[in-house]
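#help-structures

NK: newbie question. if I give both the sequence and a SMILES, will the prediction place the ligand too? trying with pyridoxal-5'-phosphate
OV: yes, paste both and it writes out the complex. here, I ran yours:
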Amino acid sequence: MGKIKPQPLRGIPAVEKVLQALGPVDLPRPALVELVRRELAGLRRGDLIPAFEQVLDQIREQIAALLRSRIQPVINGTGVVIHTNLGRSPLGPAVVETLRQIASSYSNLEFDLQSGERGARASYLEHNLALLCGAEAATVVNNCAAALVLILQHFTAGQRKEVIISRGELVQIGGGFRIPEILEASGAQLREVGSTNKTWVADYRRAISKQTALILKVHRSNFFMGGFVASPGTEELATLAKQKRVPLIEDLGSGAVIETEKLAGLEHEPTPAEVLKRGVDLVCFSGDKLLGGPQAGLIAGRAKLVRALKNEPFFRALRCDKLILSALQTTVDLYLNGKAADGVPVLAMLRATSDELKARGTAILAALEGAAVTARLTEGRSQIGGGTLPRSAVASTVLSLKPRDLTVQEFAARLRRARPPIIGYIAQNSLHLDLRTIFPEQDQIVTRAIREAVGR
Ligand SMILES: *Cc1c(COP(=O)(O)O)cnc(C)c1O
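OV: that's the protein plus ligand as structure tokens.
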């Protein structure tokens, strides 16, 4: 801290002088000028004008903060595999290569190379996505929330406005996505049935009337209900829906298309194919949760219904761009080719064995030898995240770090300022980095950043 010198108002430096003194800054000039103006205006409101060097330091701090808010790669040491705040699913090399090619070139996005005329958008993707989901047809919008809104708007556009849903499924998923609010925003009327913990088929049957637009099932993806709970099986509900000629829609949320129970420590997550087989008319799920693709909302089910959704004028407002569609196309093909286990990073992370993680941890410990930090390996539990499989946690190897000369908070802050930033979590007065969500090729970067943060 320098001392503050009282100065008259005319002591406020000129913008141009500050810009010159700052030297080259990795910000667009208008953004930099705006920041400097704002800081100097702030000084004008105070009584004391700090010395020039101090003004510069303040401005440099603001510049650093602004630069840190730029979207950039980070290293995820949280152990949360699908971390919504950290961009959910990273994409694998095959998908990145597709993105590179499609992004930098023209493409046949809506052009039929056979006839030389306007073609259907993403027909190849829709075809293969339907295959992957064991569905008659499939399509894609921007995210699962958009898929749900589209479906609700379509089915409640006529006289029938009521959407029947169990009270046990009126959930909030992540920040601000509440099923009841999405329903109401779509113009649907909520018809709640059952109680928080128990809903029977009879509850649904009683609620069906001339006002019923559809029955909605929402996969309770981010919490688990134990104790005295009951909800009807999908088959039972599908039988009722067919009898009453009411569409049955299921929001699966995470939508794994592989058998999650085969991944160590995970419970079974319903797949779109099995839900459709049980008689659901349409399912929707996210592209960037357990599927491990780009952000998207996938819709699969009966061909007639998928076609009708695509004919909604509102569909146009929710459609994905060529980057998302091509990334998803490659992701779906990885699954169909049996290459998803290695080619989709979230699945590869979930498959990493204890031995592999421990070996990496041991190498990191050796590389930290002599650094001003107490480092050890502990048992941790990685979470799936993304509102997925709340009961499942995968045993993992965690690097537990206690800096010798810093508080653990300051240490964590320094790692967040590293390049690339490293995000961990604090527990038992140590900083923890879960190795499952750190790519093996990042281990050396992590080691170096730790050394630098503790002063070598
Ligand atoms: C995550 C989730 C959503 C929202 O999906 P987005 O793709 O983020 O829009 C909707 N429903 C359920 C059940 C979810 O788990």
